[in-house]
From TrEMBL, chains A, B:
SUPFAM superfamilies: Acyl-CoA N-acyltransferases (Nat). Residues 22-173 form the N-acetyltransferase domain. This is Diamine acetyltransferase 2-like. Belongs to the acetyltransferase family. Signal peptide: none annotated. CDD domains: NAT_SF. It comes from Parambassis ranga (Indian glassy fish). GO terms for biological process: polyamine metabolic process.
Length: 173, 173
């Protein structure tokens, strides 16, 4: 599609929050979950870029000559943080991986995820974990091609959540 | 079973790591996953109780008169940490919740989880997340009774993992 496509991957900074929020919304729309997005640009700025950040980000950028018709050069991102497994210790969790549709097939998603893997290994992690929607076959194929496996299917791990009134009620002593 | 059962819930400290490891192993054996436990007491001491802890723990204790025949008074634990949702912001993740079999049915598990919920809400979290093995019907019933729901079943979220050689390979630039 772009035979001369060049892109760069770098750590996100606070000036990227506007584009991160735009792409979080694009990803949520693709996932048919846009109504679940409650987060704001200000949340991202505070939670990711103050003294004790709650997450880390990576931004994929293309040169000006490949910018979108809306003028965007920030065309992909990954959002990740460190977690802990009581079986195997330090782990890295990739909350989001996204590349704008017109820039797919150029290795940008793999480059973003590779960087998360590098950073995780450097930080002493033994696992990279993430979730996927089971109908998202193209993403499943992509992740399987990288050697990832589905621990819901193979081992029976299901994701559970408590939120809203149930969480408030549970928290009553 | 113990009509006068009293128990206390408190934050774990570094002296609890031996008992935490014992109970992690008991939980893994119950889950038929004991061969996956690679963690050591020293890992727990360093990762949970140095300057920037990677996890937090809660310990459930019973009085001496209820100690086990092996002399244990630390009879349950929860292990949790904070994560981040790009949809809804701060979240708390409960990695483990465990009560020794002979002390179940006394409200100890619920008290541990309630404390995780309280701490999460105080820290500004909107969600408490965890995973469960789909064959563990008694735990599923317990969590459902607390208003938790299965986002694998309702929304299709599957847990994915990259580890070992696949992770090393992915990390190559």
């Amino acid at each position: 599609m772009f035979p001369d496509m060049k892109f760069s991957i770098r750590a996100a900074n606070v000036e990227d929050c506007k584009d991160m929020l735009r792409m979080i919304m694009e990803l949520a729309e693709y996932e048919k979950l846009a109504e679940h997005v409650k987060i704001t640009q200000s949340d991202l700025e505070q939670d990711g870029f103050s003294k004790n950040p709650l997450f880390h980000g990576l931004i994929a950028e293309v040169p000006e000559r490949h910018k979108t018709k809306e003028g965007q050069t920030k065309i992909g991102y990954a959002l990740y943080f460190y977690t802990y497994s009581s079986f195997s210790g330090r782990a890295v969790y990739m909350e989001d991986l996204y590349v704008m549709p017109e820039f797919r097939g150029e290795g940008i998603g793999k480059a973003l995820m590779s960087k998360v893997a590098q950073l995780g290994l450097t930080a002493g992690c033994n696992e990279l974990n993430f979730t996927i929607l089971n109908w998202n076959k193209s993403s499943l194929d992509f992740y399987h091609s990288l050697g990832c496996y589905d621990i819901t299917t193979t081992m029976g791990y299901h994701c559970m959540r408590c939120e809203g009134e149930a969480l408030e009620h549970l928290a009553q002593p």
